[in-house]
Amino acid sequence: MKRDFFRKFLVLSTLLATLGASMVARAADEAPDAWIKRLSTDVLESIKSDKAIRAGDMGRVVALVDARILPNLDFQRMTASAVGPAWRQATPEQQVRLQDEFKILLVRTYAGALSQVSDQTINMKPLRANSDDKEVIVRTEVKGGGDPIQLDYRLEKTPGMGSGWKIYNLNVLGVWLVETYKSQFASEISAKGIDGLIASLSERNKANAAKKN
């Protein structure tokens, strides 16, 4: 049961976080739920029509994830939240290493789950937000084989050039992705400090890369 839950977690977070790079030049005033709906529909169709991804071509999958996740996720905020209070004590160099290793971890995680996406569809829930809100939660429901699955997003609106919405957390079946990593990272930091966490992430990423090759 637990393994099945996390398999769904990975598949769905991949499905809706892998947002089209071609959509980065979006309108800054686009409603957040409209943005999620548009990009989710686009990526669903892209995955379904890509035979290489569906066949499990990991090189193609990793390239797709790397190209399409990064423009739409706030990795610095995600990493800082996952690391917790220790982030403020980390040096600038350690923060860069943490962000880089966390990014690799997520890309590989998403890539491993992406080829499992099949016939899911998205049902948007009513948006509870004001037009001038800079941070919102967009709630959706994913329908496919089996019971519908709750999938929510925390979004922030970024200012300046390239302004628009970015994702900084995902919630599947009541579990927020960043909080899941936060508990893991806290144990590593408590036992081995920031450098220990960096080393652990690096080794984990190397092991994951070796499995895919």
Account of the protein in words:
The protein has 213 residues and is of the alpha+beta class. It has one domain: Tgt2/MlaC (Nuclear Transport Factor 2, Chain: A, Roll). It has helices spanning 2-17, 32-49, 51-54, 58-69, 75-83, 86-89, 92-114, 177-212; strands at 121-124, 135-143, 149-158, 164-172, 175-176. It has a five-stranded antiparallel beta sheet with strand order 1-2-3-4-5. Residues 18-25 have low confidence and may be disordered.
CATH fold name: Nuclear Transport Factor 2, Chain: A
Strand line-up of the largest beta sheet: 1-2-3-4-5
Structural class, judged by helices and strands?
alpha+beta
Q: What is the total number of structural domains? A: 1
Q: How many helical stretches?
A: 8
The amount of helix comes to 55-70%
Largest sheet: 5 strands, antiparallel
The CATH architecture comes to Roll
- Overall pLDDT, averaged? 80
What's the Cα radius of gyration? 17 Å
Low-confidence stretches: 18-25
What amount of the residues lies in strands? 15-25%
- Looking at CATH, the homologous superfamily is Tgt2/MlaC
Based on CA inertia axes, which overall geometry fits?
globular
Mind telling me the CATH class?
Alpha Beta
First-to-last CA distance: 29 Å
Order of helices and strands: HHHHHHHEEEEEH
Task: Describe, in short, the structure shown.
57% of the residues lie in helices and 16% in strands. It is α+β, with helices and mostly antiparallel strands and 213 residues long. The two termini are 29 Å apart.
